Amino acid sequence: MKPIIFSTPMVQAILEGRKTQTRRVIRPQPILRKGFDLATINDLVEEKFWHGRDCKWLDGGLGMSESAIEDYAPYKPGDNLWVRETWRKWTGGYSYKADAPDWASQWRPSIHMPRKAARIFLRVTNVRVERVQDISEDDAIAEGMQYDGQGSSRLWTARSEFMDLWDGLNAKRGYGWDANPWCWVYDFERISK
Asked: CA 95 to CA 86: how far, in whole Å?
């Protein structure tokens, strides 16, 4: 069983049954083999190199071969995960920020959550690779985004909600929406301990 970190709003979405998918930046990012430009790669199925490791990319970079996923994906179909979330030790057990986000009380970061405090368990059902901007409206909803039809002056969708969430988590690290990084896309289901 492996750990996976989720923010408080995403933990709430999992608990509510709205989140069944997550995207994680591929690190290091795949790089093109010398001599190929992006237009060529987008038009042709070509072999690329991933920082010295051979891997086949299919459909002009919109998918990765199963063998490459098996070799490099941190989580694989069938893996069981335990969710790390913001927490604190409480009399007789643990409490979680997702259950009481307004409490201003010595919350501990999710990265420090021990396995024994975990209450949410997931099973990976599918893995694929895509660029973050390739997310569909349906996938943004599977990511836990809610679109209530209300919005600002721009067209507001679950996808645009996801774009804002993505930038909040990844832009400072150089993997913002505009950089359009390659991502692992994990589908999962909630399981009992």
From this structure: 9
Q: Which residue has the tokens 């002056």?
A: 153
Question: How large is the C-alpha radius of gyration of the chain?
Answer: 18
* pLDDT single digits (tens) 116-174: 999 999 999 999 989 999 999 999 999 999 876 655 545 678 999 999 999 999 999 99
Which stretch of DSSP H or E encloses residue 82? strand 80-84
**DSSP letter, residue 16:** T
CA distance 5 to 189: 16
**pLDDT score at 92:** 84
Q: 88, 81 in Cβ contact below 8 A?
A: no
pLDDT digit string, tens, across residues 58-78? 334 444 555 666 678 899 999
Token reading at 22: 């997550």
Residue type, 64: M
Q: What amino acid occupies position 137?
A: E
The DSSP secondary structure of 124-156, one letter per residue, reads EEEEEEEEGGG--HHHHHHBT----S---SS--
